[in-house]
């Protein structure tokens, strides 16, 4: 039985708590900490979970093997440093940090401490996502030619009125690092790394916030495929994000948990079940199952002494892509990802 400490009880904490209920045969939450005592008490009462007297007390508990960290990214370095010193493995909600350089520092801290560091990219664990990975690996789709990402999400101004949200100091940016990061991570897990980008980003008239709520970009992948990205939180009332991939033998469309494959010989196949993905006014309008599978993988990885499917080192690939998109827009030029290879 793996003992878990939960750090932070903000917006996504309920999803994690619900998922952990389903994993009670392999893991148990043995302490929860948040800097807001009233919010902490309300959360633990709701989910019948034990309150840790302090973060330090949680680290000192010998029956806690790992932490699930749900704080904003600007709090990660101190938490991972302390966890590494205490020998506690860490699974973090996305993003890893505010940029790839800061994320790489966390990887180094974890390596020095001998702990496993993982990040939650739950979209990889959806049934349709897994099926597409299987089809690509099997070679039946052919070679990749084009890739298109569309993230037409909506967030009301009240979402950005929370102190720190949509700022560079706390979050590291806007729609790219907070919303589109999941789809961009999933994209590169299929296509391989992006080689260069040309981007335009900014804040629309629909939001008052520091960072971007819109980005459009062209991509060139290392394998020679071409692609595009459109991501926004200003597309009222919000819709499902999608990935479209064009191969030499078929075109695939992945959206709302459903994969559709249209072969050039006119065969059509569909996999998965339709589900909300949090693209509208309610950011938490999605199932807990995907988080549960991400948790299960990390928990069993700790128990079995293996690496999790998504390590932070791998998660930094999408952070480098985001850094390149931001740099391209700010400097008004095409940016090669090799410029960020040492980040």
Automatic annotation (TrEMBL):
It holds the Pfam family GFO_IDH_MocA_C3. The keyword Repeat does not apply. InterPro entries: Gfo/Idh/MocA-like_OxRdtase_N (IPR000683), Gfo/Idh/MocA_Oxidoreductase (IPR052515), GFO_IDH_MocA-like_dom (IPR055170), NAD(P)-bd_dom_sf (IPR036291). Residues 3-119 form the Gfo/Idh/MocA-like oxidoreductase N-terminal domain. It comes from the Bacteria. One of its GO terms (molecular function) is nucleotide binding. Keywords: Plasmid. Coiled coil: none annotated. Residues 131-249 form the GFO/IDH/MocA-like oxidoreductase domain. PANTHER family: D-GLUCOSIDE 3-DEHYDROGENASE (PTHR43249:SF1), UDP-N-ACETYL-2-AMINO-2-DEOXY-D-GLUCURONATE OXIDASE (PTHR43249). This is Oxidoreductase, putative. It comes from Ketogulonicigenium vulgare (strain WSH-001).
């Amino acid at each position: 039985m793996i003992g878990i400490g939960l750090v932070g009880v903000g917006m996504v904490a309920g999803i994690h708590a619900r998922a952990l209920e389903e994993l009670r045969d392999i893991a148990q939450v043995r302490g929860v900490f948040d800097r807001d005592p009233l919010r902490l008490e309300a959360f633990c009462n709701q989910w019948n979970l034990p309150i840790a007297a302090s973060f330090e007390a949680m680290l000192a508990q010998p029956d806690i093997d790992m932490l699930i960290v749900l704080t904003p990214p600007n709090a990660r370095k101190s938490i991972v440093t302390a966890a590494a010193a205490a020998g506690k493995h860490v699974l973090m909600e996305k993003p890893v940090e505010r940029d790839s350089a800061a994320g790489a520092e966390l990887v180094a801290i974890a390596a020095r401490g001998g702990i496993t560091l993982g990040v939650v990219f739950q979209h990889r664990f959806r049934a349709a996502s897994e099926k597409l990975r299987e089809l690509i690996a099997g070679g039946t789709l052919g070679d990749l030619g084009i890739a298109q990402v569309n993230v037409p999400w909506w967030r009301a101004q009240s979402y950005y009125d929370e102190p720190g949200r949509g700022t560079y100091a706390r979050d590291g940016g806007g729609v790219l690092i907070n919303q589109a990061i999941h789809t961009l991570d999933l994209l590169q897990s299929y296509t391989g790394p992006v080689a260069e980008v040309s981007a335009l980003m900014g804040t629309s008239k629909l939001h008052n916030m520091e960072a971007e709520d819109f980005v459009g970009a062209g991509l060139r992948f290392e394998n020679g495929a071409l692609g595009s990205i459109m991501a926004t939180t200003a597309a009222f009332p919000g819709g499902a994000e999608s990935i479209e991939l064009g191969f030499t033998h078929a075109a695939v469309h992945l959206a709302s948990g459903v994969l559709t494959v249209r072969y050039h010989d006119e065969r059509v196949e569909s996999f998965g079940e339709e589900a909300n993905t949090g693209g509208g006014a309610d950011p938490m309008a999605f199932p807990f199952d995907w988080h549960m599978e991400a948790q299960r993988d990390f928990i069993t990885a700790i128990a079995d002494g293996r690496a999790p499917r998504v390590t932070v080192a791998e998660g930094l690939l999408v952070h480098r892509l985001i850094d390149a998109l931001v740099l391209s827009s700010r400097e008004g030029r095409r940016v090669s990802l090799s410029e960020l290879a040492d980040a």
